[in-house]
Design goal:
12 helices; 19 strands; 6-stranded antiparallel beta barrel; 2 domains; single chain; 8-stranded parallel β-barrel; TIM Barrel; Lyase, Ornithine Decarboxylase, Chain A, domain 1; alpha/beta
Length: 364
C-alpha cells in the first residue's frame, strides 16, 4: 500500500471562503488568486471550488494555459505581467489581461504587432517598493500606454504592504487616490488583509478585489485574528497515520539530538510525516497536532520521514490511528494551519506551498 500521508483539498471550503470574500465587498468583482499552483493546492483541484469568481489572477503563462484548458473563458490576469516579448503573443492568443509595472514592459507593447489591443493593469508603487511606477512617474506611464494602438482599456492597481498590521493602508491609499483621481479605468487595491480588515472603506473595495490566502483558509493577520474570527474554513488538510508506538521511561529521549527527554513515563506515537513531505523541520517540541481529532503535541526533532507525537491525551491511540498535521481531521476537528506555521516561525502560505510531490492529493 502507499505511504499513509495524504493531503486533502476541500471544495466546499473553497466555495465558502469565496463567498466570504464576496460578502466583504459586495459591490466589487472578485479575482481568485491562484498563483504558486493555487498556493500549493493545485490549480486543477481548486478550480471547481473557485469557478464562482469573476476572474483568476496568477503569475505565469503555464498557469494561464491550465486555467484556459479547464474551460474558463472569463478574465485571467497576469499579476507580474510579461517577462519577454514573445509572451505577448500568448497573451493575445489566450485573451489574457496583464500587469504593466516597468518601462521595459511598455517598450515591449509598443513594438508588439497585434490586431487585438490588450487590456492592461498599470501598477503603482505606492510604498511596497517591489513592482510598479512611483507616483511621480505613474501618470507619464499611463499617458504613454494610452497613446499605443496595442493597448485597449487601462485599469489601475496597487498593492498594500501593511494591510495586515498596525500601520495599515491609509498612507498608501491616499497616495494612490491622489495620483489617479482624474484618470479613467477600473481600480483594484485589496489583497486578503486589505479586504477583510478594511472592508468598510468604500475606496478600498474599488472595482475588483483580489483575495489570495484567505481563500485557502488562512487568516491574513494571524495571530491577531484566527480563521474562526473571519469565518474561514481550511481548504487543505495534511493527514497521516501512526506507524509505531514507544513506551518511554523517565530520562528516555526522542529523535536526533535527543532534544526531548521524558520527565515521566509516557507513550508516544511515530507518524509517517517529515520534512521531505513538506512538514517544517523547524517545528519544535510542542507544535500542535491532532490524533484521531484530539489535540496533542510533537516531541523532539522533525526528521526526514517521521515525527513523534505525545499520546498522553489520547491513551487509546495506536498503530494506524489518523494524525492531522494541519487542517480538518476526518471527524471534523480543526487544526488551523496558522498555528503550525507560527510554531515553525513562518506563515501558512509557506506550508501550503511546500507540500512535496511525494504526498498524494485527494480532492473532494
Amino acid at each position: 500500500m502507499p505511504r499513509p500521508i495524504q493531503a486533502f483539498v476541500h471544495t466546499d471550503a473553497l466555495r465558502h471562503n469565496l463567498a466570504r470574500m464576496r460578502a466583504a465587498a459586495p459591490d466589487a468583482r472578485v479575482w481568485a488568486v491562484v498563483k504558486a499552483n493555487a498556493y500549493g493546492h493545485g490549480i486543477e483541484r481548486v478550480f471547481e471550488g473557485l469557478r464562482g469568481a469573476d476572474g483568476f489572477a496568477l503569475l505565469d503563462l503555464d498557469e494561464a494555459q491550465r486555467i484556459r484548458g479547464l474551460g474558463w473563458r472569463g478574465p485571467v490576469l497576469l499579476l507580474e505581467g510579461v517577462f519577454e516579448m514573445r509572451d505577448l503573443e500568448l497573451c493575445s492568443r489566450l485573451d489574457l489581461w496583464h500587469t504593466v509595472h516597468c518601462d521595459e514592459q511598455v517598450d515591449m507593447l509598443s513594438a508588439h504587432k497585434t490586431q487585438v489591443p490588450h487590456r492592461i493593469f498599470l501598477k503603482m508603487n505606492s510604498g511596497m517598493n517591489r513592482l510598479g511606477f512611483t507616483p511621480t512617474r505613474f501618470r507619464s506611464a499611463w499617458t504613454r500606454l494610452n497613446q499605443l494602438p496595442q493597448v485597449d482599456e487601462i485599469s489601475l492597481v496597487t498593492h498594500f504592504s501593511d494591510a495586515d498590521g498596525p500601520k495599515g493602508i491609509t498612507q498608501q491609499m491616499a497616495t494612490f487616490a491622489k495620483t489617479t483621481e482624474d484618470l479613467p479605468g477600473e481600480r483594484t487595491t485589496c489583497n486578503s488583509a486589505g479586504l477583510l480588515r478594511h472592508a468598510n472603506d468604500v475606496a478600498v473595495a474599488a472595482d475588483w478585489v483580489r483575495p489570495g490566502i484567505a481563500l485557502y483558509g488562512s487568516a491574513p493577520d494571524y495571530p491577531e485574528r484566527d480563521i474562526a474570527a473571519w469565518d474561514l474554513q481550511p481548504t487543505m488538510s495534511l493527514r497521516s497515520r501512526i506507524i509505531a508506538t514507544q513506551d518511554l521511561q523517565v530520562g528516555d529521549t526522542v529523535g536526533y539530538g535527543s532534544s526531548f527527554t521524558a520527565e515521566a513515563p509516557m507513550r508516544i506515537g511515530v507518524v509517517a510525516c517529515g520534512y521531505a513531505d513538506g512538514y517544517p523541520r523547524h517545528c519544535p517540541t510542542g507544535t500542535p497536532v491532532l490524533v484521531s481529532g484530539v489535540r496533542t503535541r510533537t516531541l523532539g526533532r522533525v526528521s526526514m520521514d517521521m515525527i513523534a507525537v505525545d499520546l498522553t491525551p489520547c491513551a487509546d491511540a495506536g498503530f494506524g490511528n489518523e494524525v492531522t498535521l494541519w487542517g480538518k481531521s476526518s471527524n471534523g476537528a480543526v487544526l488551523p494551519i496558522d498555528e503550525v506555521a507560527q510554531a515553525a516561525g513562518t506563515v501558512g502560505y509557506e506550508l501550503m506551498c511546500a507540500v512535496s510531490s511525494r504526498v498524494g492529493f485527494t480532492q473532494y
